[in-house]
Request: fold
Amino acid sequence: MKEITYPKIVYWILFVLLLVASLIVLRPFIYPVIGGILLAYIFHPIYKKIFKKLKRNWVAALIISLSIILVFTILTVIIADLFANEAYVTYVMLKQKVSTITTINIVCNESSVKCSILNFYSKTVGDPRVSIYINNALGKTTTYAVNWATDFIVSVPQLVLNLFIMFFVMYYTFKDGETLVKKIWLIFPLKKDHQEKIGKRVTDVINSTIYGSIVVSIIQGATALIGYYVVGIHSSVILGIATAFAALIPAIGTALVWIPASLVLIADGLTAGNNTIVFNGIGLMLYGLLVVSTIDNFVRPKLVGDRARLHPALVLLGVLGGLAMFGTIGLFLGPLILALFVTFVEIYEETEFE
Reply:
């Protein structure tokens, strides 16, 4: 262990004070800054391919940064608009459906699967107490969704400023990121082999978190959305987003969404005497079982390989906590913080610092 001298103590005190002051200065723009760094990390492999062809780092950084901002803006606006519209339409449709079931008493005395489903459907959703609970829950959920989308659209000037900052952060991270990382490593008083070990472990966990969990869940949500749309479910975007979040839950995962959606579709078809809707519900259930729930078994190994994998429960807690703490960017930031914490704990246990 190197001797700790007075100048070093003063240096580290000043360093911490300046770090805190810098964070205070950057606080109003901390989310676009972090978002720009994360996006630059995620798309760094693509940047390397562009740079290899163009041979100019600033041109490659400019092209990919502009492309990411453009695609991100278009997709976000489209999803927010669809989400707000679908939330309102879904609320109206479900409220009418609950009211209809409450006023119509379905009685079926035959000993068949159809009668069992109809009677269960009527007794549960048709119960006045359940109806009141569902209406209240639907009202609160829909109001939150519509307000979120409306606030998003209203705050366009702030969003433009954040995108502008995110663009420049991405551009310089792509262009000078590797040099900056080398300078950061010089700050830490660690041996080179320790730095390499820490860097590899951190990189593996980050890759596992982003590509192995979040990206896979987004792919599963998008795949499920296609199925919902094909079978004619009006709230396909909402269910697709819900499926993406459910994919982060260990064991059960996406089945939490596509099983109820399939059963409701089958019950609707039986109630209306429409075999087409019934077959759509059965088809959705098979699609969810054979495609949506199993797609991660094929995609995850391709994206992650043999890298270290973060426990699914830790990913879920990171996503939920990150969203509550940081907003949308917390979807990535929350799991990364927990992943880095776990990594440094493991490194502390395994590495003898000299």
Notes: Residues 30-188 form one domain. The mean pLDDT is 77. Residues 185 and 196 are 10 Å apart (CA to CA). The chain has two domains: 30-188, 190-354.
